[in-house]
Structure formats: structure tokens, C-alpha cells
């Protein structure tokens, strides 16, 4: 499905990929992820999308965002909005779908293959549009979680479905527990999302 001279771009729905990996019991090593797809084609761009809570002094995702930015990922962030729902519960809203779709459509004429890291069925029309423009689309998510993270309609629309669990050995590392790493992960590994 991947060809060495393919112009390739990655579109990573940060919170969706994080949730999928967490449901499978591992963390993504973004350095390894980037290297894996650099091997599979000519990587034009690797986009990472996430909403950030403003007005908090320290966001737990900030170290990851900074690391990705310095290590060749194109970061697309926007402030998450906090609101109170009808039941009086504090909620955070920060959907990055529109930004991802706009970037993918803009880049499409210069791509052969788009890799979407999300299981969100809302992306099906995007996949369809990219395909009409002659771009092959692979979707990375998981069917092995309970319930599956990949929407059936998205999986069927994609040219290629990549099971995240099958990438575990190539791009994963065990989740860190209580900060006591086992020593084999050096500083090249990313902080958690």
C-alpha cells in the first residue's frame, strides 16, 4: 500500500490517537512513529492537532506539544473552551476536525498518500474528497479496543486500514507508571500526551 516515491502526509488527531493507544495499553513514541513513515515514503508533512486549555499555568500536554514542534511535526493547536453543561458539570470543548480537514484539502494536490490517525467517522467525507482528488488514504486506529475506536463507515471508505495494535512494536512503548521507568528509554522519547 505504501510506495517509496509516494509523497506522504500524516494527519494526527492527537486526542483520538492518545485514547486509542491508551485503550490498547501503550504510549506512542512519536519519534519512532515519524521514522516509521519516513521509511514508507517521502514524508512531506506530519501534522499534529490538539486543543490546549488556556488559563491553566501548566497543561499536561505542553511538554509533548513543545517536543513535537522541535522534532519536525507541524503543530496545529487552538484554545480549548471550558463551559458548564445543563447539569452544572464543567466540560472542555476543543474539536480540531475543521483545521485537519482544511490542511488536508490544501495539501492534497501535492500528495499521493494521506495517513489519517483517527477513528472518527466524521472524517469519512474528507477521505472521500481526498480519494476523488487522486490521493490514497490510510486510516490508523483500532478495532481491538472495547468498543472499537474506528467508525465502521470510516474504515470502509479508506483505501487501507492500519490496525494501531499492529504498529505497537514499531511505534509504541509501555505506558509509564508512577514515573519509574525501567531505564531503557532515553531522552529521545517524548513526554506523554
From TrEMBL:
<feature type="domain" description="NYN">
    <location>
        <begin position="7"/>
        <end position="165"/>
    </location>
</feature>
<dbReference type="GO" id="GO:0004540">
    <property type="term" value="F:RNA nuclease activity"/>
</dbReference>
<protein>
    <submittedName>
        <fullName>NYN domain-containing protein</fullName>
    </submittedName>
</protein>
<dbReference type="InterPro" id="IPR047140">
    <property type="entry name" value="LabA"/>
</dbReference>
<feature type="region of interest" description="Disordered">
    <location>
        <begin position="171"/>
        <end position="193"/>
    </location>
</feature>
<dbReference type="InterPro" id="IPR021139">
    <property type="entry name" value="NYN"/>
</dbReference>
<dbReference type="Pfam" id="PF01936">
    <property type="entry name" value="NYN"/>
</dbReference>
Amino acid at each position: 500500500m505504501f510506495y517509496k516515491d509516494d509523497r506522504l502526509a500524516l494527519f494526527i488527531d492527537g486526542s483520538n490517537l492518545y485514547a486509542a493507544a491508551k485503550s490498547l495499553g501503550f504510549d506512542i513514541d512519536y519519534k519512532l512513529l515519524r521514522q516509521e513513515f519516513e521509511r514508507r515514503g517521502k514524508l512531506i508533512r506530519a501534522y499534529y492537532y490538539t486543543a490546549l486549555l488556556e488559563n491553566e499555568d501548566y497543561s499536561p500536554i505542553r511538554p509533548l506539544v513543545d517536543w513535537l514542534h522541535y522534532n519536525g511535526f507541524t503543530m496545529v493547536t487552538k484554545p480549548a473552551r471550558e463551559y458548564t453543561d445543563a447539569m452544572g458539570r464543567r466540560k472542555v470543548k476543543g474539536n480540531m476536525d475543521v483545521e485537519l480537514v482544511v490542511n488536508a484539502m490544501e495539501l492534497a494536490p501535492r500528495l499521493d498518500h494521506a495517513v489519517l490517525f483517527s477513528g472518527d467517522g466524521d472524517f469519512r467525507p474528507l477521505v472521500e474528497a481526498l480519494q476523488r482528488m487522486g490521493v490514497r488514504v490510510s486510516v490508523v486506529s483500532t478495532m481491538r479496543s472495547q468498543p472499537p475506536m474506528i467508525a465502521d463507515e470510516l474504515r470502509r471508505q479508506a483505501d487501507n486500514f492500519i490496525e494501531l495494535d499492529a504498529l505497537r512494536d514499531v511505534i509504541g512503548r509501555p505506558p509509564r507508571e508512577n514515573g519509574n521507568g525501567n531505564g531503557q528509554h532515553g531522552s529521545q522519547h517524548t513526554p506523554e500526551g
